[in-house]
Please model this.
Amino acid sequence: MPAHNEEAGLPDTLDALMRQTVKPFQIIVVDDGSTDRTAEIALSYPGVQVVHPRTGTGGSKARAQNSALPFATGDLVLPVDADTVLADNYIELIVVPFANPDVVVAAGCVLTKVTKTPTERGRSIEYLFGFTFYRPIQNMSHSPVVCSGCCSAFRRSTLVDFGGFPERTIVEDMDYTWSQQCLGNRAVYVGAAVAYAADPETYGYLKKQVWRWMSGFFQNVRIHRTNLVHKPMLALWVGLSVWEIFTAPLWWSAPVVWPMIFHMSYESMFMWWIGIELAMTIPVLMIGAARRKLKPLRVLASLPFVYGNKVFNCYYAWKALVVELILVPLGWAEGLHEYVMGR
Model:
C-alpha cells in the first residue's frame, strides 16, 4: 500500500483489510516520504509492516510499490491505494481466478467511495457505466484494457520475473496489463469484487488525475503499438478507445455544428442528440444500479454532472495525444513522469 500523507484515509482502508472474510497474509504500508502521521497510524494496526524507501521514489507510485515487493512472501500481491476501501469479501473473490495458472492479474469493480461534489458524482457515473458495459465485454473477449492499480491482484512470481511494477510509464497498471497479455498471459475482471475509491473532490484535482490517466494511456500506446499485434482483441479495444477520443469533439459539437450542415433547426438537432445520448446511457446505468444495489433516482440525479467531467476528459485526451504521440517522439517534450495525486 503506497502512502504519502494519507493519515485521513488510511484508517478506513486498513479497517476494511482487517474485516476481510479471507485475511491477508501480510499488510505492508510504504510510507513514501510522508510528513504526517501515516506511519504512526499504520503501525497502530496489529501485524502491519511499514517500509520506508531507501531512496526517493521521485513521485513514482510504481517505484514505491516495488520498494515493498521484496518483503512480500505470498503467492499473490494486492496493491491497494491508501484511500481505497475494499468490500469485506474482496480478497475472497479476487483470488478465485488464480486457480487458472494462465491468470497473472485480476481486477475488481471500482465504485466511488464518496459522491458529494460535482466531480465525485460525475465520476460515479463514469465508473458505473464503464464497469457495467465496457469491462464485462472486454473480459468476455479475454482482453481487459486495464486492471485498476488501486485494487488489482497479481501473481507475485510473474510480477517479480517481469522486474516488478513497470516504472517507464505514469500508469503502471495499464502498462503491466498490456505487457502480460501480449506475452500470452491472462488478465481477468471479477465484477463481484467491489472496491470503493476516493475520487477528485474539485475540478482542480480532476484535471491532474485526468491528465495523468490520459498521458499514461498514450505512453502505453506509444510503447506497445508493435506488441499489440500479438493480442488482436486488446488492440481492437485500444483502437476503439483512440477512435472515441478522435471523434468525441464531433459528437459534443453536434448540436451546434450539425444544424448548419444538415439544415435542421437547433431545437430539433438538440432533441435528437440528447435522445441518442440518453438512450445509450440510461439503460446501462439502470442495469448497473440494480446490480450494485444503488438507488436509481440517485444515479439519475448524478448523470448531469458527468458532462462536466467529460469536458476535462476530452481536452486532456487530445493534449496527451499530441504530447505523447507527436512531441515526445520528436524530442520536443518529455511527457509526464511524476505521479501527481488526483485528490
User: Anything to note?
Assistant: The chain has a mean pLDDT of 94.
